[in-house]
Design goal:
The complex is a heteropentamer of chains A (about 110), B (about 500), C (about 100), D (about 230) and E (about 500). Chain B is about 75% helix and about 5% strand. Chain B has a domain of about 220 residues. The two termini of chain B are about 30 Å apart. Chain B is mainly alpha-helical and about 500 residues long. In chain B, strands 1-2 form a two-stranded antiparallel ribbon. Helix content of chain C is about 80%, strand content about 0%. In chain C, helix 1 packs antiparallel against helix 2 and helix 2 runs antiparallel to helix 3. The radius of gyration of chain C is 16 Å and the shape is flat. Chain D has two domains: about 30 residues; about 170 residues, no CATH class. Chain D contains eight helices and no strands. In chain D, helix 4 runs parallel beside helix 8. With about 500 residues, chain E is mainly α. Chain E has a domain of about 170 residues. Chain E is built from 19 helices and two strands. The longest helix of chain E has about 35 residues. The C terminus of chain E is likely disordered. Classes of the chains: A mainly alpha (about 110), B mainly alpha (about 500), C mainly alpha (about 100), D mainly alpha (about 230), E mainly alpha (about 500). Chains B and E meet through strand 1, helix 5 and helix 6 of B and helix 16, helix 17, helix 18 and helix 19 of E.
């Protein structure tokens, strides 16, 4: 067991927390926070797991950098959409319409 | 490609191209549309006659290509194909003439004629299909292209009938597809072959083959209106008369019956089918359908519905004929494919004339129509007597040959069915004839239209007279070389000589 | 040993801030905690010997995302339809089921 | 009540998910396949044109990822400005009058600009690079914006759009230049690798900052909308 | 030559995204026409090259896997590249006329469109797990942007929901990639396959495959993860709906299929395969049932996508531990299903857009009388429907036939029943629409007649879907051995 693996396992826990938030919370900004937390968990696993075996590895680090930029792009897009949605409808969750009582995106 | 390869493609494409052309023309282009339509019908008749001649002299028309891995698309003309193809080519021409007159001044004619030609194209495809896969292809296209014709009038009743029609035929199609796919996965691609493929099939798959046969008959039986799958046909009579005449009396129901003939003769083979014990139950079912539908027909007050039940009953003659598994009975069944076609189309043409000219739909309105429309009524009478089986008309030939065939294979009970059916036919046709000629008519008809000196439009009058004449001719000259009977004998001869 | 202690504490802090960011009653506070989470992540990346990611996380993950979200919260927070949200938002429950 | 049950159910499912995931990680950690990638990477570093391995991976070995990733960023920017109001920048409501912020600005902005420059320059051989520098630059912009400094180039117009795609287009051109020489897409000419990467990084920095900033300022919302298809309006 | 073609294929969409961003809508349209021409020619050229000389690996930047990113240019990939070229150009041409050029935000339609196209090409050709992730995100974000473009609250709700689902799916996929990299130390699919060929399958990465496929199934809207799809596809503008239904959902399915065929034998299990197939079957039934219940035309078409997507997932049970020939039949069937559904669904959405434009309402019962006055668009809709109902001679029928053969050949006859039931159910919801259009409306022609170019495009697509059945053999033979894993790096 190296400290790398510890972080990878912490990443697994973060994934769980983030997933719960994404599925259960209804406020859209909170969902977005949950998405980012889950993303962080994935990144930790991505770097921690291979480094546990072979020491610092620049390839997954580069991947995570790419991943972070993609995540910020997605987050920013989501924020724009959410703000416009709020502006048009006055709502901050997707549950507005009758018939869709579940908060999840599924 | 050689001419032998091109001919079936021509036969198929003529109606298809006509259909596309009709759709491309504007709704208001009556003259151009009619010329395209009639021109295509004549051309097709010529092509089919050439092919009949060729097949008679042993030319092999055929073309095929691989459509999917392990599956070929085959068009091929054998004697049986040409019987069905000839029937539909002749009747297409007559029905087109009739329909031009019938639909004068009504809306949506482009749609009607476009889909009508498409139906005929798929009928031709069914006739020329060289294997079960190709057969199924056109069988489903026929289903689809008939739907717009059934709901043509757009009324609530028509839409409901369309729905019933679809539920029956699409379900039947699905069952048929399952059966064909299953058979394909068991024994590979099956082209239609005289004598069939399954004579020495592995005994291990016998149970599967029996099940597949049941599925095949169920799938095909929907279109052939075999009891208990006949429910859609009387409802579909809401369609315009030319549709009922060509499609629901001839093309669609015959497609089903034709398919059963193909399955029994050219896929399973008569020998294998009867060895598997499949034909006896089929003949019982056909016999029951004959009697049941004739009985039901008696109580129908609507003329077209009565004719529809009559169709259900008559189509089962074909199935009965081949299910008896004797060559003579088979000749009787096959010849009925033609005979019933011309007789029934005569009756439907006449029913359409009564409706279009006098506004008559119900049988109790027909009193005295014989004086008002003598030509139409004469044709109707000939057709009805043919159905009953009065000599020397076409229907008599069928029953005679089939009866002798049944005796030849020691199935005496069939005679009872034939006699019973003739009696029932008489019970539901004779009162109509009585009303036509011997009852005094009322002064006014429900909706009368006049054409000067003529009883009705010549477009409407000549087709039934011609077909009625054919009923007489094919009965009287049954023993000649080119009669339907002779052709049916040729088919059976080629089948059993394998 | 100190390393292990440090790593352990960091991991615990990460999990705690993550949970707090998701389930804190107040949305504004949630975002602030999320920024803290981002900074902790940056430290974690340093511990994972990934200084590039650490820099990026600090600048992008914590910094920009945080600002973006804070800005969004200030716009969404207290304008219209507060009553509407009250019935729908689990903010009011504030439970932390994880 | 139903809600509480559902919450419990989802919570249990998520805990189970974490547990299974952790178990998998544990199993993989105990039974590693022999990856040869790190060795391969160090063998090829000399041909990459830069000294820092992460930069080498990002901008040379796996540059296609980076190219597409900038594309993703540009998409987000496009979607952002497609919804923004045109005359939002002088919105007085947005201007903060916090003296602390002013003070911060006076000191921070130059400092941050320097930091961004350093990060960019460092990327070749040390941690740092276009993303970090771009992010810092964007953060500077955000500060300026909060401080009410007008930044007219962020008004949705040709200039903004040009800025959005500048880095992306330069990268793309560099990618296709090699094809003319008969090489693969994205292959840099051997003797120009380092300068090309530097140029790409610099313009990327600018563009990344632009996109992030555009997304930040595009938040004020344009009211106009399309009717739904088939809506009689 | 191949070099130029590949570079053109990768470069054109990205470059056109940049160019169209700098112009307004009308100029963007003209520029797009040129781009479509280039892209179609390049795709065709590449397809011909591969058809003649076979597939190859293309090393981007001159760095081969595992260090660099390799593109896998095989028959299947180029077929999908060509399919994309056909469908996307149709949608692009249609959109150029269909979309209101006076709304200022519509200029952003073109760059998003081109980015979507480049993402699709990246996914078809991708041979690198992480690169596929980036490609997926490129697709998702541009698709979400297109749905949201100028949208009202409903469109925004749909697009946010879509975005969240897509992001969650991508994260699950990325998590799987992380585990795969941890286990195998490489990101190249071929590399992992080569490793698996030489070693016994390890226990850990089974979850990785499960995660990736679950994430991709979410992005493909497999039942029960389908709920984001109908609102997004129903509310987007018709050309966008067409792109989304025809191509975007296929991209994630394509990756899932490639992963399954590469790793499924060693990392998957029979239970998982049957489970996925079961969900697919449920999707067919449930999606069709819901399609029957919809009152809006485009919602019917959108739910039909949910049902049709269900068929695709029959690939999983029909290729797991079955004989080589059955597996091949299933793969060919699914490939044909993807192609024919793409063509038919695009035609259907475009035709639906025309119909809505004509009758001025999106409700089905507003279609009464359409069959008399607007036969052309209705005809396109109907022809596309033939393929969706998988009736002959359409490509859908060819696909169904192969799948029937595969399910009967592998003894899994229950999938045959699903296939047949699905065909009947799709007839149920489609004939509802035809039926409405045949109802006679006593009024005269009060419909708006869209321009001919709008009407012809869906017709061309529908005829292609219909004719696919006749050329299936040729199409499949170009794909020689679909999904073949030849030549490890």
């Amino acid at each position: 067991m190296t400290s790398y693996l510890l972080y990878a396992l912490a990443g697994a826990a973060l994934c769980g927390i983030g997933l719960f938030g994404l599925l259960r919370l209804s406020h859209l900004l909170r969902k977005l926070l949950a998405f980012n937390i889950m993303g962080s968990g994935v990144f930790l696993i991505m770097v921690g797991l291979p480094q546990h075996q072979s020491g610092p590895d620049p390839v997954p680090q580069a991947l995570v950098l790419t991943g972070i930029v993609v995540a910020i792009a997605a987050t920013a897009l989501a924020v724009v959409l959410i703000r416009r949605y709020y502006h048009q409808s006055g709502m901050t969750s997707l549950e507005g319409e009758a018939g869709s009582r579940e908060g999840g995106p599924l | 490609m050689t001419l032998e390869e091109w001919m079936p493609v021509f036969a198929l494409m003529i109606s298809l191209v006509a259909s596309v052309g009709i759709f491309a023309l504007p709704e208001t282009g009556y003259v151009r549309r009619t010329s395209v339509n009639l021109g295509a019908a004549v051309l097709k008749l010529v092509v089919v006659i050439v092919m009949v001649w060729g097949v008679f002299h042993g030319v092999n028309y055929g073309v095929s290509f691989t459509m999917l891995p392990g599956v070929t698309f085959v068009l091929r003309a054998d004697a049986l194909s040409m019987m069905f193809a000839g029937l539909s080519a002749v009747l297409w021409l007559l029905t087109t003439i009739y329909a031009v007159g019938y639909l004068e001044d009504s809306p949506n004619r482009r749609r009607f004629f476009g889909f009508f030609s498409l139906c005929v194209a798929s009928t031709m495809g069914i006739a020329l299909a060289g294997n079960l896969f190709t057969f199924f292809l056109f069988y489903e296209i026929l289903t689809l292209s008939t739907y717009p014709l059934v709901v043509h009038r757009g009324t609530e009743k028509a839409l409901r009938a369309g729905r019933t029609y679809l539920i029956y035929t699409l379900t039947g199609g699905a069952v048929l597809l399952l059966a064909i796919a299953w058979l394909h996965s068991l024994v590979g691609d099956l082209s239609f072959r005289d004598g069939g493929h399954l004579v020495d099939a592995d005994p291990d798959i016998h149970r599967s083959l029996i099940l597949i046969f049941i599925l095949l008959v169920a799938g095909l039986g929907v279109k052939a209106a075999l009891f208990p799958l006949h429910g859609w046909l009387p409802q579909a009579m809401v369609a315009p008369a030319p549709v009922s005449a060509l499609l629901h009396a001839v093309a669609v129901v015959k497609a089903g019956a034709f398919g059963i003939v193909r399955v029994v003769y050219d896929v399973y083979g008569v020998e294998a089918s009867s060895d598997l014990g499949l034909l006896a139950p089929l003949s019982w079912l056909a016999a029951f359908t004959i009697l049941y539908a004739s009985t039901r027909a008696i109580w129908q007050v609507d003329l077209k519905r009565r004719l529809a039940f009559s169709t259900i009953s008559q189509v089962s003659y074909i199935i009965l004929g081949i299910a008896l598994a004797g060559p003579l009975a088979a000749v009787g069944g096959l010849v009925h494919l033609l005979h019933q076609g011309i007789m029934k189309i005569t009756l439907f043409f006449c029913a359409g004339n009564y409706a279009e000219t006098l506004g008559i739909h119900r049988i109790d309105e027909m009193d005295g129509a014989g004086q008002r429309m003598p030509g139409t009524s004469l044709a109707f009478t000939i057709g009805a007597f043919g159905m009953i089986g009065a000599p020397p008309l076409a229907g008599f030939i069928t029953k005679w040959v089939m009866g002798s065939g049944a005796l030849a294979v020691n199935m005496d009970w069939v005679i009872l069915v034939l006699v019973g059916s003739s009696l029932l036919n008489a019970v539901y046709f004779l009162p109509i004839i009585h009303r036509l000629w011997f009852r005094k008519g009322k002064e006014t008809w429900p909706e009368e239209r006049t054409w000067g000196r003529l009883e009705t439009s010549p477009w409407l009058l000549w087709p039934p007279l011609l077909t009625a004449m054919m009923v007489v001719v094919s009965g009287v000259f049954a023993s000649s070389q080119f009669s339907p009977l002779a052709w049916a004998e040729l088919i059976v001869l080629r089948e059993i000589s394998e | 040993m100190t390393d292990w202690l440090l790593d352990g504490l960091l991991v615990l802090a990460l999990l705690a801030t993550a949970a707090a960011a998701l389930f804190s009653r107040d949305l504004f506070r949630a975002v602030v905690v999320f920024i803290a989470f981002g900074l902790l992540m940056a430290v974690a990346w340093v511990r994972l010997q990934a200084p590039d990611i650490a820099l990026a996380e600090a600048a992008i993950g914590a910094g920009l995302t945080g600002v973006l979200l804070l800005d969004a919260v200030s716009h969404l927070g207290n304008k219209r339809q507060k009553a509407l949200r009250k019935t729908r938002d689990p903010d009011e429950r504030g439970s932390d089921p994880s | 009540m139903i809600r509480a049950v559902r919450t419990c159910f989802i919570a249990l499912a998520c805990i189970a998910f974490s547990a299974v995931l952790a178990a998998s990680i544990w199993a993989i950690a105990g039974d590693p396949g022999q990856g040869t990638l790190p060795q391969l990477l160090s063998e090829n570093m000399s041909r990459s044109g830069v000294e820092h391995p992460v930069t080498a991976v990002l901008l040379n070995f796996r540059s296609y990822d980076t190219l597409l990733e900038i594309g993703v960023l540009v998409i987000a920017g496009i979607a952002g400005i497609s919804m923004s109001k045109t005359t939002s920048l002088e919105d007085p409501e947005l201007r903060t009058s916090d003296p602390l912020l002013y003070a911060l600005q006076r000191w921070f902005i130059p400092l941050m600009l320097v930091l961004a420059g350093y990060l960019l320059w460092a990327g070749a051989d040390r941690p740092g690079g276009a993303f970090q520098a771009g992010a810092v630059l964007a953060a500077t912009g955000v500060l300026m914006r909060l401080g009410g400094i007008p930044m007219d180039f962020l008004r949705p117009g040709l200039l903004l759009r040009l800025g959005l795609v500048l880095g992306f287009s330069v990268f793309l051109l560099a990618a296709v230049v090699s094809v003319i020489g008969g090489d693969a897409f994205l292959a840099y000419p051997p003797d120009m690798t380092k300068p090309l990467i530097l140029v790409i990084e610099s313009v990327l920095t600018l563009s990344i900052a632009m996109v992030l900033l555009a997304l930040f300022v595009s938040a004020p919302v344009n009211d106009a909308e399309d009717p739904e298809e088939g809506d009689p309006s | 030559m191949t070099l130029w073609l590949m570079a053109g294929l990768l470069f054109t969409p990205l470059a056109w995204a940049v160019l169209t961003l700098l112009t307004d809508f009308v100029w963007g349209r003209r520029v797009t026409w040129v781009g479509i021409l280039v892209q179609v020619l390049v795709s065709l050229g590449l397809w011909l090259t591969v058809a003649q000389h076979g597939g190859f690996y293309y090393d981007l930047g001159g760095w081969g896997a595992p260090l660099g990113i390799e593109l896998r240019v095989d028959g299947l990939a180029v077929t999908f590249v060509l399919l994309t070229a056909a469908v996307a150009s149709a949608c692009g041409l249609h959109a150029g006329v269909y979309i209101d050029q006076h709304k200022p935000w519509h200029r952003y339609f073109w760059p998003l469109f081109w980015f979507l196209w480049s993402g699709l090409n990246a996914v078809w050709l991708g041979g690198d797990l992480f690169n596929l992730y980036v490609g997926l995100e490129l697709i998702s974000l541009s698709a979400v942007g297109l749905v949201a473009l100028g949208g009202n609250a409903n469109a925004l709700r749909a697009s946010i929901r879509y975005l969240l689902a897509a992001l969650l799916g991508s994260l699950a996929y990325l998590l799987g990639v992380a585990l795969i990299y941890g286990q195998f130390g490489t990101l190249s699919i071929a590399g992992v396959v080569a490793w698996l060929d030489n070693h016994s399958a390890p226990a850990g990465p089974g979850l990785a495959l499960a995660l990736m496929i679950t994430g991709l199934a979410l992005k493909t809207a497999l039942f029960p993860l389908h709920r984001w799809l109908p609102p997004a596809h129903g509310i987007a503008k018709s050309p966008v709906s067409a792109l989304l239904s025809a191509l975007v959902v296929k991209a994630s399915f394509y990756i899932a299929a490639r992963l399954w065929l590469a790793f499924g034998e060693s990392l998957g299990s029979l239970a998982a395969a049957q489970m996925v197939g079961l969900l697919g079957g449920a999707a067919v039934v449930w999606g069709s049932w819901l399609a029957c219940k919809q009152a809006q035309l485009k919602q019917v078409v959108a739910y039909s996508s949910v049902a049709q997507i269900g068929y695709l997932f029959l690939l999983f049970p029909l290729t797991y531990s079955v004989s080589e020939s059955v597996s091949l039949q299933a793969q060919q069937g699914i490939t044909l299903q993807v192609i024919s559904h793409a063509l038919a669904k695009a035609a259907m959405f475009l035709a639906a857009g025309n119909l809505i434009l004509s009758v001025g309402s999106s409700r089905i019962d507003a279609l009464a009388g359409v069959s008399r006055f607007l036969p052309f668009s209705l005809f396109s809709f109907g022809l596309a429907g033939v393929s969706l109902m998988s009736l002959p001679p359409s490509g859908g029928f060819a696909a169904k036939w192969l799948l029937l053969q595969a399910s009967l050949g592998s003894g899994q006859w229950w999938w045959a029943l699903v296939l047949l039931a699905g065909g009947l159910l799709s007839a149920a919801y489609l004939f509802r629409i035809y039926r409405a259009s045949f109802a006679e409306n006593p009024e005269t022609d009060q419909f708006f007649h869209p321009s001919k170019s709008l009407e012809i495009i869906p017709m061309v697509l529908a005829v292609m879907a219909l004719g696919l059945g006749f050329v299936s053999e040729q199409v499949l033979s170009v794909m020689a051995l679909p999904f073949a894993e030849e030549g490890a790096p």
